[in-house]
Amino acid sequence: MITRRQTIAAIAFLAAAAAGPASAFEFQPYDPAVVDKAIASGKPVVLHVYAPWCLQCHVQAMRLDGLKADPAYDGIAFYKVDYDHQKDVVEKLGCPRSTLIAYKGGKEVARMSWGLSEEAVAGVLKAAK
């Protein structure tokens, strides 16, 4: 006979298994003070300049989503720049929408606009590591 404790433990185990692996990264909204501090710290940072209506941006986001579970990208801080509502940031970065920018050691180390392949997207992330 199964005890109540065994039933609860089994439910907890199944819930954890159903949740799947934890993501290696999540994008945070771009906040100039937070991002500047992260870049100045020398830690790896990746920006995604994104517009919700942009098909290339959606493909890049899909590629990034496919890389989330890869532990190789642990430790990178990810931020999303809203192309439509953060025009001052876009102008400062000097880039179009659908752009990924990687920073490492306080400096920009890679930039890619319009690239859609998994290899192109992963290349930017790898540059940050």
Defining key terms:
single chain, 129 residues, alpha/beta, Glutaredoxin, five-stranded mixed beta sheet, globular
For the record, give the distance between the C-alpha atoms at the N and C termini, rounded to a whole number. 52 Å
CATH class: Alpha Beta
CATH superfamily: Glutaredoxin
Across the major sheet, the strand order is 1-3-2-4-5
Low-confidence stretches: 6-22
**Structural classification:** alpha/beta
Tell me the CATH architecture: 3-Layer(aba) Sandwich
Number of strands: 5
Could you name the CATH topology? Glutaredoxin
What percent of residues adopt helix (DSSP H or I)?
Answer: 40-55%
Walk me through what this model shows.
- The protein is an alpha/beta fold.
- The chain has one domain (22-128): Glutaredoxin (3-Layer(aba) Sandwich).
- Helices cover 43% and strands 22% of the residues.
- It is built from five helices and five strands; from the N terminus they run H-E-H-E-H-E-H-E-E-H.
- A five-stranded mixed β-sheet has the order 1-3-2-4-5.
